[in-house]
Specification:
The longest helix has 16 residues, at 193-208. By secondary structure, this protein is α/β, with parallel strands linked by helices. The chain is built from eight helices and seven strands. The protein has helices at 2-11, 19-30, 38-51, 65-77, 90-102, 116-127, 153-160, 193-208, and strands at 55-59, 82-87, 109-113, 141-146, 164-173, 212-217, 223-228. Helix 3 (38-51) packs parallel to helix 4. It has a seven-stranded mixed sheet with strand order 3-2-1-4-5-7-6, with helices on both faces.
């Protein structure tokens, strides 16, 4: 009861989106499309304000809400930026493209269709020089938001680490899985056990990864915020 009252109290201070961004959010919720929760959205804004990233990578576009939210916030800060975002579902890609077009942000947000792990591999390959194996620092991402297939988070992170630099911020959403990650393996529905187990493994992994400084927060459905340590990018 105390937790519910605390969450309601905190949420009472959160301001809603305005205009087209609000319409996109409401439509997504009505259609059952997972979108970032208000508390996590506010946390993202604070992190973006602190980091002021120019190159952003998002894994999990859905209908484009979070990409557009980050884009509009960075625009309000006067940050010259570009967002690359990955999505597998063709229907959601179509909706995201429509939403991005409605807000005239095609120049600033690019959708990469297909399996995110394959997309990341392609990005890593393109960064490599001809036979040299070096990465062009100016093309590495300053900020990464991971919000896609939960069972694949560790796969995504290992690939993302080859696309970021020292000081880059990596945010992972929905790490508490509606509280199920707290439960024992055998208390979770059988169909959900793989995701449950992999998420717990992921949290252990990022908290013990010497390349990262990570904090786990309760915001929304749980958010992990990691900063890449100096000299430990790959």
């Amino acid at each position: 009861m105390h937790d519910d009252r605390t969450k309601d109290f905190i949420r009472s201070f959160i301001q809603d989106d305005e205009g087209l961004l609000s319409d996109i959010y409401i439509e997504a919720r009505e259609n059952g499309v997972p979108v970032i929760r208000p508390e996590a959205r506010d946390l993202l804004k604070v992190l973006l304000s602190m980091n002021r990233p120019e190159r952003i990578l998002e894994i999990g576009t859905a209908v484009g809400y979070s990409a557009l939210m980050m884009d509009q916030f960075l625009k309000s800060l006067g940050v010259n930026h570009h967002i690359d975002t990955c999505e597998f579902d063709e229907k959601r890609i179509s909706t995201a493209k429509k939403n991005i077009s409605l807000m005239n942000r095609e120049e600033f947000i690019e959708i990469f269709p297909g399996d995110a792990a394959e997309t990341l591999d392609n990005m890593i390959g393109k960064l490599s020089s001809d036979g040299g194996g070096c990465l062009y620092e100016s093309y590495l991402y300053d900020f990464v938001f991971i919000d896609a297939a939960k069972a694949q988070y560790k796969v995504y992170l290992d690939k993302v680490m080859k696309l970021v630099h020292s000081g880059s911020v990596i945010v992972t959403d929905n790490i508490l899985q509606e509280g199920e990650v707290l439960e024992s393996h055998f208390l979770v529905e059988k169909r959900d056990r793989t995701i449950h187990d992999r998420m717990r493994e992921y949290l252990q992994y990022i908290k013990n990864d010497s390349r990262l400084d990570t904090v786990i927060l309760e915001a929304g459905d749980g958010v992990a915020v990691s900063v890449v340590r100096i000299g430990d990018r790959v």
